[in-house]
Write a structure and sequence with these properties.
single chain; D-Maltodextrin-Binding Protein, domain 2; 2 domains; 68% helix; transmembrane helix; membrane; ABC-2_transporter_component; ABC2_TM; cell membrane
Length: 416
């Protein structure tokens, strides 16, 4: 047991001290800080000056209502009536006197039309804003000419009241589903990234030790099975350290910016209003999912003796987690479908799909217990098989070209 903890500590500390791990954490923390202060950062780069637009109104009727409409909707856009010619206005835009030039005229149906001129049209926010205001003025003029009352028109275009109500007492409301969907998406994405990242880390760590012949020294001092589980738990602790750091920093950022973020992205994800049971399920399925895929990664990594061969043998595992993720993305819109229900009991898909279901639906307790039981049993079987493959795989050197090396690893494990 002493040797187990030594290998675990060595795996954790070695990976923790690597430049790639430190740089990744720094970049991630900078990203979290930037996300929390996004509005302030954007404000530093935004031009605080008003966008002045020259307007040549040939109709003599559109400019005033357009100016009032723009003033009510855009604080940084100022319309100024232009008395010169269109060519003179274009020249002044080119010289930087105006942000843009808007020419307004009447078409054959006696309705307004406009031409927008600017030095660059890559940024379309200003032109789209003016187009929307012009559209409202055109509708008002057209309805007036047709003798349609403006109040009646507004009533026609008013959205129809439409409320969705679940009949089951335990079913979630539309608001609760929206909140749960955000958290489920975050956890699914975290699980997807974590499995690929830490699974590759385990496989690369084993392959690196075999390449440098360190594995031969480790085998003589600790059993291969102890090594495998020590590495799995060592990388797990590393992952918990990383995720814990992100969660703490993210929570502090959210707490400090709570007032500014109300109604923004954090309300959309609904993190503050989710039930504690959903968080508990998230932790349970996250841990079970990691253990399942980490055991598979260690088993695959033991078959490789060259670092460049790791990705080739890791592809089956990556495909499994990708398929689970894609099904989960589909299931976000139809979590109650039979397809999602059935696949949520497949061990390699359970961490994502069963969590998707418990997060968005009222799933019977026996189904959740059954899925967890299947996962625990699968982890146990995979660990037993993985231990045998690992025991023989660490003794294998040379190019690992396919999964046929499993048979060879099992044969070697019987001799060792």
């Amino acid at each position: 047991m002493n040797k187990f903890w030594i290998v675990l500590a060595h795996t954790y500390i070695t990976r923790f001290k690597t430049k790639s791990f430190l740089i990744t954490n720094i970049i991630a923390l900078v990203f979290i800080f930037g996300l929390a202060n996004l509005e302030s950062i954007i404000g530093l780069f935004d031009n605080e000056e008003d966008q002045v637009v020259a307007v040549l109104d040939e109709t003599d009727t559109v400019f005033t209502p357009l100016q009032e409409s723009v003033a009510n909707t855009s604080e940084d856009v100022v319309l100024r009536s232009y008395e010169g010619t269109a060519e003179e206005a274009k020249d002044e835009v080119m010289d930087g006197e105006y942000e843009a030039f808007l020419s307004i005229s009447m078409n054959e149906e006696n309705l307004p039309e406009a031409e927008f001129y600017a030095n660059q049209i890559a940024s379309s926010s200003l032109s789209e804003n003016l187009q929307q205001q012009m559209q409202q003025i055109k509708v008002a003029m057209a309805t007036t000419d047709a003798g349609i009352d403006q109040a009646a028109l507004e009533k026609i275009y008013e959205p129809v009241p439409f409320e969705t109500i679940a009949l089951q007492e335990t079913a979630k409301t539309e608001e609760e589903l929206s909140e749960a969907r955000g958290l489920v998406y975050i956890i699914l994405f975290m699980l997807y990234i974590s499995v690929i990242t830490y699974g590759n880390m385990i496989a690369m760590d084993i392959a690196n030790e075999k390449t440098s012949r360190v594995m031969e020294i480790l085998i003589s001092s600790a059993s291969p099975v102890s090594q495998m589980f020590a590495k799995i738990l060592g990388i797990a602790l590393l992952g918990l350290t990383q995720v814990g750091l992100f969660v703490v920093v993210g929570y502090l950022m959210i707490t400090q910016k709570q007032d500014e973020m109300t109604g923004g992205v954090f309300e959309y994800f609904g993190i503050s209003d989710v039930t504690p049971s959903t968080f508990i399920y998230a932790i349970v399925f996250f841990i079970l999912g990691y253990l399942l895929y980490a055991t598979l990664a260690a088993m695959l990594g033991s078959l490789v003796s060259r670092i460049e061969d790791v990705q080739q043998l890791m592809m089956p595992m990556i495909f499994l987690i990708m398929i689970a993720f894609f099904i989960a993305m589909f299931g976000l819109n139809v979590p109650a479908s039979n397809f999602v229900t059935v696949t949520s009991f497949i061990p390699f898909f359970t961490p994502m799909l069963m969590f998707l279901r418990v997060g968005m639906l009222d799933v019977p307790a026996w189904e959740v217990a059954l899925s967890i039981g299947i996962m625990v049993a699968s982890i146990g079987l995979l660990a037993a098989l993985g231990a045998r493959v690992y025991r023989g795989g660490v003794l294998m050197y040379g190019r690992a070209s396919s999964l046929k090396d499993f048979k060879k690893a099992l044969q070697l494990s019987k001799r060792s």
